[in-house]
Amino acid sequence: MKEIDAFCKELTAAGVCVFEPSFSDPPISEQHAFDSEFVTQKLFKGLTLEHFDWIRKSEACYIYNKDGYIGTSVSMELGYATALGKPVFALEPHTGDPCSECLIDKVIPTAAQLTKVL
Fold first, then answer.
1. Strands (E), 1-118
2. 55 and 86 in contact (C-beta within 8 Å)?
3. Residue 118, Cα to own-chain centre: how many angstroms?
4. Rounded to an integer, what distance in angstroms lies between the CA atom of residue 53 and that of residue 77?
5. Contacts with 16 (C-beta within 8 Å, 6 or more apart), sequence order
6. Beta carbons of 93 and 109 less than 8 angstroms apart
7. Using one digit for the tens of pLDDT, what is the confidence trace for 35-94?
8. Running DSSP on this structure, what letter comes out for residue 35?
9. Which residue in 22, 74, 94, 115 has the fewest CB atoms around it within 10 Å?
10. Domain residue limits at 56
């Protein structure tokens, strides 16, 4: 989370409008369940639709896939960005899933390099 925050701050300082993920403390994982199934569904639907809205409003989608990791949510976001015709950039070339990896248009490992592309 700290690395993503620093990456986003560097982009923002360079004048890039960043829709930054919100992190709770402690983080809520995709496997988290609340006492109420209703609350769990509403919370995750809201978070998912919020990210889709950000992608729709964006010029590009950047995946911070450190150590080649992406979760289920990011896989959906990759597909959504691709369906909208948005370029998809990533920190690293691998995601652990060839169906997701093939949707990455360009690997850009630093915020400074990403700023130049944007």
1. 61-63, 88-90, 106-107
2. yes
3. 16
4. 10
5. 114, 115, 118
6. no
7. 788 888 888 898 889 999 999 999 999 999 999 989 888 999 999 999 999 999 999 999
8. S
9. 22
10. 2-117
Average pLDDT on 96-106 reads 95
CA dist 54 and 36 (Å) reads 27
Angle at 46 between CA 43 and CA 48, to 5 degrees: 110
Give me 76's structure tokens: 């959906």
The residue count for the chain: 118
For the record, the structure tokens of 74 come out as 């990011």
Question: How confident is the model over 2-14, as a mean pLDDT?
Answer: 94
CATH number for the domain harbouring residue 96: 3.40.50.450
